[in-house]
UniProtKB/TrEMBL annotation:
<dbReference type="GO" id="GO:0004618">
    <property type="term" value="F:phosphoglycerate kinase activity"/>
</dbReference>
<keyword id="KW-0067">ATP-binding</keyword>
<feature type="binding site">
    <location>
        <position position="322"/>
    </location>
    <ligand>
        <name>ATP</name>
    </ligand>
</feature>
<feature type="binding site">
    <location>
        <begin position="20"/>
        <end position="22"/>
    </location>
    <ligand>
        <name>substrate</name>
    </ligand>
</feature>
<dbReference type="InterPro" id="IPR015911">
    <property type="entry name" value="Phosphoglycerate_kinase_CS"/>
</dbReference>
<feature type="binding site">
    <location>
        <position position="35"/>
    </location>
    <ligand>
        <name>substrate</name>
    </ligand>
</feature>
<feature type="binding site">
    <location>
        <begin position="348"/>
        <end position="351"/>
    </location>
    <ligand>
        <name>ATP</name>
    </ligand>
</feature>
<feature type="binding site">
    <location>
        <position position="117"/>
    </location>
    <ligand>
        <name>substrate</name>
    </ligand>
</feature>
<dbReference type="GO" id="GO:0043531">
    <property type="term" value="F:ADP binding"/>
</dbReference>
<comment type="similarity">
    <text>Belongs to the phosphoglycerate kinase family.</text>
</comment>
<comment type="pathway">
    <text>Carbohydrate degradation; glycolysis; pyruvate from D-glyceraldehyde 3-phosphate: step 2/5.</text>
</comment>
<feature type="binding site">
    <location>
        <position position="150"/>
    </location>
    <ligand>
        <name>substrate</name>
    </ligand>
</feature>
<dbReference type="GO" id="GO:0006096">
    <property type="term" value="P:glycolytic process"/>
</dbReference>
<keyword id="KW-0963">Cytoplasm</keyword>
<protein>
    <recommendedName>
        <fullName>Phosphoglycerate kinase</fullName>
        <ecNumber>2.7.2.3</ecNumber>
    </recommendedName>
</protein>
<keyword id="KW-0808">Transferase</keyword>
<feature type="binding site">
    <location>
        <position position="35"/>
    </location>
    <ligand>
        <name>(2R)-3-phosphoglycerate</name>
    </ligand>
</feature>
């Protein structure tokens, strides 16, 4: 267990609060403010307790130099509207002017630093940059679970110079995802999708030691089907991962884990919303056609496997759901999760997008704010941004 802001004195403290405000923008318009909204409980608690708050986040990948396209200005303005208080933005990340503005903060007031990745030392975890930021504050609070797998100056470095604790969002992520790894409810079912096996080998290997059932869809299912001898036509397959797929199936069998693969698929002549498409059994994909979604028979099989689940973990879409003709499988499973009596946990950007597209987000027990961080956590890896936090004694 890690210490959180509930476990430390906040009154009169100046806090370096690392948040994950890496939100999608259309110009200066925020198209999805979920990550900002999820950080509000931590910000509000710090304000209520009389802390002075220095907010830090990255946005995009500006490569260590100032790039106006990645400015946090629209984020600061939006947060100000949500909180109903001013959230000024400091264009400078370090220096006397920043130090003076932080020192002038009153209890409950905020100052947002400009995109931390505008500084070349951020992604290098430069100790001088981290030490400078730490010199401005009394406490480091990490609430950016989505960036916890990065050992950067603002996610790890600052915490080496001042006490480091978790924010409320970080604490919730660790509690829920930690429960999957350490104390899962049973039956535990994992749904793993997405395009490629090689991106999720570690997750699959770790989950095989935990789950009762494993449902595999998306492009990665094609490689498992290829390993079973099926002709996949022009479908996306990873020839170099066939042996890995075969080994994972053998491991599952040895552990008594039942693996569910597509029995029918929606195929198309090409990867396009207006391409000719139809549903076929997995052994009957026409030459030159590609599998782009799980079929209705597979949906029913997957739903039956979820029926009595006490806990479900889902990462990765089950088809090319961004194209309307190939979204049905992913949407159907999203709907099934929304009516599940078990605890439902969804992680990863595309999976979250699918849940939101299906309008069932409010029915899901926990939607993780991490993409790569969620995957690495479920692999059993220690995340640097978590390791730096103080343990609860």
């Amino acid at each position: 267990m890690k210490k959180t802001i509930r476990d430390v004195q906040l009154q009169g403290k100046t806090v370096f609060l690392r948040v994950d405000f890496n939100v999608p923008l259309d110009g200066e318009r925020i198209t999805d403010d979920t990550r900002i909204v999820k950080a509000l409980p931590t910000i509000e608690m710090l304000r209520e307790q009389g802390a002075r708050i220095v907010l830090a986040s990255h946005l995009g990948r500006p490569k260590g130099e100032v790039d106006p396209r990645y400015s946090l200005k629209p984020v600061a303005q939006h947060l100000s509207q949500l909180l109903g208080v001013p959230v000024p933005l400091s264009e400078e990340l370090v220096g006397p002017a920043v130090a003076a503005r932080i020192q002038a903060l009153r209890p409950g007031e905020l100052l947002m630093l400009e995109n931390v990745r505008f500084h070349p030392g951020e992604t290098k975890n430069d100790p001088e940059l981290a030490r400078t930021w730490a010199s401005y504050v009394d406490l480091f609070v990490n609430d950016a679970f989505g960036s916890a797998h990065r050992a950067h100056a603002s996610t790890v470095g600052v915490g080496t110079f001042v006490p480091a604790v978790a924010g409320l969002l970080m604490a919730r992520e660790l509690e829920v995802l930690g429960g999957v790894l350490k104390n899962p409810k049973r039956p535990l079912v994992a749904i793993i999708g997405g395009a490629k096996i090689k991106d999720k080998i570690g997750v699959l290997e770790n989950l095989l030691g935990l789950v009762d059932r494993l449902l595999i869809g998306g492009g990665m299912a094609n490689t498992f089907l290829l390993a079973q001898g099926y002709d996949l036509g022009a479908s996306l397959v990873e020839e170099d991962q066939v042996d890995t797929a075969r080994r994972l199936m053998q491991e599952a069998d040895a552990r008594g884990v039942r693996v569910y693969l597509p029995q029918d698929v929606v195929v198309a002549e090409r990867f396009s919303a207006d391409a000719a498409h139809r549903t076929v059994p997995v052994g009957h994909i026409p030459s030159g056609w590609m599998a782009l979604d799980i079929g209705p028979q597979t949906v029913e099989i997957f739903k039956a496997a979820l029926q009595d689940a006490a806990m479900v973990v889902w990462n990765g879409p089950l088809g090319a759901f961004e194209l309307a003709p190939f979204a049905a499988g992913t949407m159907a499973i999203a709907q099934a999760l929304s009516t599940s009596k078990g605890e439902t946990i969804v992680g990863g950007g595309d999976s979250v997008a699918a849940i939101e597209a299906a309008n069932v987000a409010e029915s899901i027990s926990h939607i993780s704010t991490g993409g790569g961080a969620t995957l690495e956590f479920l692999e059993g890896k220690t995340l640097p941004g978590v390791a730096i936090l103080q343990d609860l004694e």
